[in-house]
Amino acid sequence: MSDKIKKRIKSLIKKINHLDFCYYIQDEPSVTDDEYDRIFRELESLERSHPVFVYPYSPTQRVSGGLLEEFKQVKHSVPMLSLNNAINDIEFSNYYEKICKSLKSDKVEFVAELKLDGLAVSLIYEEGILITGSTRGDGNIGEDITSNIKTIRSIPLQIDGAKLPQRLEVRGEVYMSKATFEHLNQIAKNSGERVFANARNAAAGSLRQLDPKVSAQRKLSFKAYSIHFDDDERVYNTQQKSFEYLRSLGFPLVMQSDCLINLDECKDFYKHIVNKRDTLPFEIDGVVFKLNLFSDQRSLGVVSRAPRWAVAYKFQAETSSTLVKDIEVQIGRTGAFTPVAHLKPVFVGGVMIRKATLHNFDELNRKDVRIGDTVIVRRAGDVIPEIVHVVIDRRPEDSKPFKQADDFGTGCFEKAKLIRIIIHSSSKHAFDIEGLGNETVSALVERELIRNFSDLFILKKNQLLELDGFADKSSSKLINSIKKSSQIKLDRFLYSLGILGVGRVLARKLATKFLVLNNLRIASIEELEQVNDVGDVVAKNIYEFFRSPASSEIEKLISNGVKITRYDEFDDLVETGFFTQKTVVITGIFDSLNRGEIIELLERQGARVVGSLSRKTDFLICGKKPGSKLEKANELNVKVIEEADFLLTQE
């Protein structure tokens, strides 16, 4: 009897999943609503009577579970990169020519796809079953929104296919259709609630609800744009073939072009989409062009958290006029001055704009923006608020040019700049000077006890005693802390210099490549560009920094006792032991840690975490409900470590 019930439940699940595919993905309903409801109610009834046969991929489980307290973090095994933008014909043409030059070919194959104005998400499937859905986050770590992802009817809870990989990842965009957005806002208006500014904000707010039932009511949609798994190039080796594979698994896809083999074809497709944009049932903010051949993609690699082999050709931004209420000069972490215009609030492209950066004083002077001016603003690339130009005929007669850049080279602004530089250089991820707070830095600069960062390393105890709040013990403690920090690894030192475009990740990559400071100081622009993530602009910034007066601070630091040690990537390991230089697979559900936390612990200890088992696998970390991986591990004689034993290795 139970076998019969089990077969019937699985049959109904398969039937309903197929009906959902026809309705939500192919937009071709194959049964009436009444017939669908009848089948669904039968499945619900059987599952209530036989809860042992409630499967996670059952359509009844799309909205399940109670209110979440918070979203757990998930570490992406492969970073979710952003895209570089082209915002006009010239920029796109330059990008195309640069690609041709890099690949040493006059003709390259591109495919284009619509750039949905939604939220990027990652879907992890194991043995064909959706186990995790997460947001992009910062590209490396996102949030686990699995409960809400399951409420999206166009996302398959289970996928079938010949020789389906044991573990695969599908990435795509969650969005809200124009019709759903208008309906949602109409309900909000009728209820006297605040309406959403645009469909993207509505989708984001819906996806991050702690109650999955709210997400389900918002009727979000999904379209896939990429798929990843071990040895995926054995199945497909082009962008187009990867789309075909995604389609064969039942995923809805964004609209794509045929293969585009020259610049004119790319531009024609872009123009076609511009003309078609308003007729689409969802919002898009551009067209994404990707190299079709994976071999070409590998050749170009990535730079600054974005692939070189793809670009988003964004639509021309909407504009509005507004008033400049004030201009504020902000000082960045590296001491750079940035003028920022405070604007009378105005909607641009569905977003309220209150501020717009003027980037630097050259830009401020070139546009001649003044307080009281009426200006035209847009969102550059549909994202960053930008002042396009001043409406001169509406300028007040008594207006005056804003202070010139020279006014900010002395006095209080120069001190403020020095304070920001010292705070950055002494921060946790740079010299990590414990006990040197912002107030202390400000006091040292104001009293002129230090005139640059290098002066910290010759600071005397009696000088600190001149400051309020410092006694004998606290002064000695800070002096010892400064002395302790005087030995610094190369990657931290490079980050401390504040070179434009060189953050913590890139500093580590430069250190890995050049090992010692002098190698980097004499490197050519061409040698710098060979480092992964270093593009031509950042390479030029690094090259020019080491040949500018600013680099003289390095000699002062060394003269004052700073020792820059050779970089060794294994210095970052927490410890050596079980997992150092080992290949590890994770399976099952864990009580103490989520999967992302386990991956982070393993990688910090020098492990390589992969998705599938092979004879080269060293360990299988095993939680509850491990599935077939545990059986395969035993077949391959892979050492299995259960959760309790894994936790013991971390003590």
Describe the structure concisely.
With 651 residues, the chain is of the alpha+beta class.
Strand content: 15-25%
Biggest beta sheet summary: 5 strands, antiparallel
Give the class-level CATH name of the largest domain. Answer: Alpha Beta
Name of the CATH homologous superfamily of the largest domain: DNA ligase/mRNA capping enzyme
Task: Count the E strands.
Answer: 23
CATH architecture of the largest domain: 2-Layer Sandwich
Question: What would your notes on this structure say?
Answer:
- By secondary structure, this protein is of the alpha+beta class.
- It folds into 6 domains: 2-61, Helix Hairpins (Orthogonal Bundle), CATH 1.10.287.610; 85-311, 2-Layer Sandwich (D-amino Acid Aminotransferase, Chain A, domain 1), CATH 3.30.470.30; 319-396 and 403-408, Beta Barrel (OB fold (Dihydrolipoamide Acetyltransferase, E2P)), CATH 2.40.50.140; 411-485, 5' to 3' exonuclease, C-terminal subdomain (DNA polymerase, domain 1, Orthogonal Bundle), CATH 1.10.150; 488-572, DNA polymerase, domain 1 (Orthogonal Bundle); 583-649, BRCT domain (Rossmann fold).
- The protein has 24 helices and 23 strands.
- The strands form 7 sheets. Strands 15-14-13-16-17 form a 5-stranded antiparallel beta sheet.
- Helix 1 (2-25) runs antiparallel to helix 2, helix 12 (411-425) packs across helix 13 (438-446) and helix 16 (490-496) crosses helix 17.
- The longest helix has 24 residues, at 2-25.
- It starts with a helix and ends with a helix.
- The relative contact order is 0.08.
